[in-house]
Amino acid sequence: MSDDHDDAHEPHREEFRHDPIAHAEARAGMTVGELVDEYGAAGIGAADLHEAVDVYAEMLDDDVTTFFGLAGAMVPTGMRRIVADLIRDGHIDALVTTGANLTHDAIEAIGGKHHHGSEEAPDKTPREHDERLRDEQVDRIYNVYLPQEHFALFEDHLRSEVFPPLEAEGVVSIQRFTEALGRANSEVNAREEIDEGPGIAAAASENDVPIYCPAVQDSVLGLQAWMYSQTSEFSLDALADMTTITDQAFEAEEAGAVVVGGGVPKNYVLQTMLVAPDAYDYAVQLTMDPPQTGGLSGATLDEARSWGKLEKAARNASVYADATITLPLVVAAARERIE
User: Fold this and answer.
1) Catalytic: which of 113, 266, 309, 312?
2) What is the dihedral of CA 191, 197, 200, 205, to 10 degrees?
3) Whether 246 contacts 271, CB under 8 Å
4) Which of 65, 194, 256, 279 has the most CB atoms less than 10 A away?
5) Which of 102, 105, 59 is nearest to 81 (CA)?
6) Is residue 309 annotated as part of the catalytic site, yes or no?
7) Which tens digit of pLDDT belongs to each residue from 53-103?
8) Is the overall model pTM greater than 0.85, yes or no?
């Protein structure tokens, strides 16, 4: 049968383009970048992750001001060094995260550790398992354990190293608070010769990268700050940071957003562009939250475009999977391309 005969019977297709799915190869010795290239030949989540790497690598390669939102239990689950290294290498210009992540970051900096655990025990019901952990004074974050004595260590760290220098300043911004936390983490880490690195807040403090924590009250860090404020002149100004992060947005020639998880960090990163003359030129989202609920955590980046948070022509990609799996892949593959 001739090609002319085939062409004559093909339907008119507005949406379709000839781009066949290939079959990914996985072989010993591949780099992360090579594996992600193979993802690009496949479909569904593999194709999404490949697109996210494309967008993020372009953000890293160009002179883009990068706002990084970090929600969820990313520090206690082992993602701490990845974020700290991105800060030290100049790939994060503003970090927006939770008080919980900063709490766990500081615990590691001053000598505490998170441990492998289990979400259930073979000889107990889930409730009995957690009741036993309660009796043993061990806090559980899914399959990660944290002994409660580390919170006592953290409280002592705040009251001896962080709060006293700030008390003389009276009311300070949350960003000033996180800066002081990072400085103290770095100093204690070096002084006590802690095996683990000083972490995210320390890296930010050392490299003049602001950390914004707009929901700091929703954490042990926030609880400790509130308790200290009851007997001192120290307090936090919840609105002060909006000036500095907005200034960063105004001054950015090009801006990119990396959003890991949802919640307040995601919204705080994206809403910044509502009061800036431009919007994000790049955006990558790593999430497991579905958009159908109508909540911000699951809202798509395309929806954010309708609000003016992304430019109409912005490059953006979303990956729907556990961020403890996708963040290392995206970062490693993107860094491989530019380095």
Assistant:
1) 309
2) 30
3) no
4) 256
5) 105
6) yes
7) 999 999 997 789 999 999 999 999 999 999 999 999 999 999 999 999 999
8) yes
